[in-house]
Amino acid sequence: MTTRRDFLKTSAGVGVGAAVGMGSAQPLLGAPAIRRSAVTPVAIASGNGLEAVSTAMQVVSEGGDTLDAVVRGVNIVERDPNDRSVGFGGLPNLDGVVQLDSSVMHGPSRGAGAVACLEGIKTPSSVAVDVMRYTDHVLLVGKGAQRFAVSMGYDIEDLLTEASRQRWIQWRARMSNTDDYLTPEETGHADAEPPFEDEDTYGLGILDSHDGVRPQGTINCNIVNSDGDLSGVTTTSGLSWKVPGRVGDSPIVGAGLYVDNDVGAAGSTGRGEAVIKTCGSHTVVEMMRAGMSPTDACLEALRRIVAFTAEPRLQNADGLPSFNVNYYAVNKNGEYGGAAIWSGARFAVSVDGEARREQSAYLYQRP
Ligand code: GLY
Question: What is the pTM of this model?
Fold first, then answer.
């Protein structure tokens, strides 16, 4: 008789486990039958994921597993010190500590894993895969997540780059005129750092609120292969200067990521609190199940965010959200789309041998 534990060990060794570690294309034990009609493979990601979609598509074109593909793709961005919204080089919390969130979902096995408030590990998405493969849990947080990662062989490293530390010091200095931290202008060290708006090249999300402009980055990447199998990953350093312990949407299954192998995959970037309150990515997938195109499903989920944004502090002069949220979605037939609350956002896509950025659909024209 096969026990649950035996099944987990076996499937980790033969299926996703082997695939993530070694690029095997073996089917998962116990996976539901997959559709065999030809689907044009598509990888879609947030605008900072051009390399990620290329890498993911390369992995599936070589017969690799879909989750292996998207995680290898986002690992590039997680390790990139110049992306200030994800992994190494991410902007820190209030205390100057980088805390990372990530979730993964593997369509064929219905597997999910996630980590939140993880410190010191450059690739939280890979740790999320290990939570899925090697535990009976879905979400590990904080010190427990870090101890688990160390037990799996990950090194603890300092994730705060000098550029991110400088940003944090400047934010701390500008927080108040009545404390003892001198602003960069007062010290004569106002440097050439561009305003955050200029860094938000892909419209991933800037919160323009009572305490100034704050970036909310993140990378989401979803893929469908030629068998119609799907996987997705979302990974982030979260909202800059957040209250220590704050968890955004990225590691919350159904919020920052959702995959149903019968329907499609969706993920988000931008203000996580708004996505959590509306079960965002799950909503997108359910709208696709009901027959909407990926783009229309993303727009409908964004309308719910607008309806749920009742706090005046989060509204602009027209009563509309003063933040951005983006959704990215692909369905089982290989149709894809992206949409944002505000115009100007872009997403990355790899399809038919070409990786490119496309304009996201939107609800409102940016003023
Ligand atoms: N969407 C990323 C975050 O809010 O943490």
Answer: 0.85
